[in-house]
Structure formats: structure tokens, C-alpha cells
Design goal:
Structural class: alpha+beta
Number of strands: 7
Helix content: 55-70%
Distance between the termini: 130 Å
Order of helices and strands: HEEHHHEHEEEEHH
Strand content: 15-25%
Oligomer: single chain
Radius of gyration: 35 Å
């Protein structure tokens, strides 16, 4: 009888411990999701197989997928990227991070092909997620829409080009002005009836 009492108590204790552990895990997971939902960058997390576990609201807006719709799908289906100039599909950084076990940056001129077919230029990186023992358990992709940044850079380049053209025009005007000024002065002297010797000396 004592054996059954002890066994029952042990089972209750273990079940209670597992229940408490599960509650703590759920609380921590919820806390992490709320934190990720509040940051401005887009975040996609995946498992070891590159299947989507979570998208924060910024990632949902950027990709056109909700977190619920994307969950379980291959990251390459949700985060489809191509080279803006060549239109060649860019290797997904999440896949590379999982293969290499290290951070992977997005290539330059990368655009995200959203669910509705529209495109936005994106930048940033993917990194492996590791547990407390250093074992890789998934990956996370953090990215942002860099349309505004590119627009600012384009505007700055145009401003620099216009400034360069302005400086060139000023230089040309200055170089043309010198002989024109001399010719103008010579014509002025001629109209005043200056003697030919003085005029020849001025004309040099």
C-alpha cells in the first residue's frame, strides 16, 4: 500500500513539475513574441529545417503573409528574394545561416518579392539560433525595407551631380569670360578712336 502511495505522490509531483515547466516555457515564449512584435525591424524565426515559426507584425506587413499563414511553410516561400538588377533568385540567407552555422548578410541590390507580387528593397542579415548548450535549434532573419534609405542616397547623388555641373559651368564661364573681357575692352578702345600703336600694344 505504501508503495502505491509513494508512486502516486511521485507521479503527482513529476506531473506538477512538468506542468509548471510548461507554463514557464509558455510565458517566456509569449514574452519573446511580444518583445519581437514591438521592434521596428521585420523578424522571421524558423526551425532547423528552415520552416517558419513566427513573423512579427513588421515582417507580416513586409512579406504580405500573416504569422499564422506562414507558420510551417518553408522560409523561401515566405521570404522570396531576387537581385533587383539581374532578376536572378538570391540564395535565402536563412538557409545559408542554417548550413554554415553563422551570420549571413543579404547581398546588395536584393528585393523582396511580396505575396501580392510587389517588390521592396531589403537589407540586413540572418543568424542561427542556439540553445543554452550551443546547439543550433533554428534561425532568425532580421531585415528592413530600405526604400527610404535608397531614395535619400539617390537624392544625395543627384544633388552632388548638380553641384558638380554647377562648378563645371562656373569654371567654363570664367575661362570664356577672360578672353571675352579682353576683346570687349579692345572694342571699347577702338570706339574711342585710340591710336593704332596703343591698340596693337594692348592686343599684344
Amino acid at each position: 500500500m505504501d508503495f502505491f502511495v509513494i508512486a502516486g505522490a511521485s507521479i503527482s509531483f513529476v506531473a506538477g513539475s512538468f506542468g509548471a515547466l510548461n507554463r514557464r516555457v509558455a510565458i517566456e515564449r509569449r514574452r519573446l513574441e511580444v518583445t519581437l512584435s514591438c521592434i521596428g525591424d521585420a523578424v522571421i524565426s524558423t526551425d532547423l529545417n528552415g520552416r517558419v515559426l513566427f513573423l512579427n507584425p513588421t515582417a507580416e506587413k513586409a512579406t504580405g503573409w500573416t504569422s499564422a499563414e506562414a507558420r510551417g511553410r518553408d522560409a523561401e516561400e515566405v521570404f522570396r528574394i531576387v537581385n533587383q538588377k539581374t532578376r536572378v533568385i538570391v540564395e535565402n540567407p536563412i538557409r545559408r545561416a542554417l548550413e554554415l552555422g553563422e551570420d549571413v548578410s543579404l547581398a546588395m541590390h536584393t528585393v523582396l518579392s511580396r505575396r501580392d507580387g510587389t517588390e521592396i528593397p531589403v537589407g540586413d542579415r540572418a543568424a542561427p539560433i542556439r540553445d543554452a548548450h550551443g546547439q543550433m535549434i533554428g534561425a532568425v532573419m532580421v531585415f528592413r525595407d530600405i526604400s527610404v534609405k535608397i531614395e535619400h542616397e539617390t537624392t544625395w547623388l543627384q544633388t552632388q551631380r548638380l553641384a558638380s555641373v554647377g562648378r563645371l559651368a562656373a569654371t567654363i564661364a570664367h575661362e570664356l569670360n577672360n578672353p571675352l573681357q579682353a576683346t570687349s575692352n579692345l572694342l571699347f578702345l577702338i570706339t574711342l578712336g585710340g591710336d593704332s600703336v596703343a591698340l596693337q600694344a594692348y592686343a599684344g
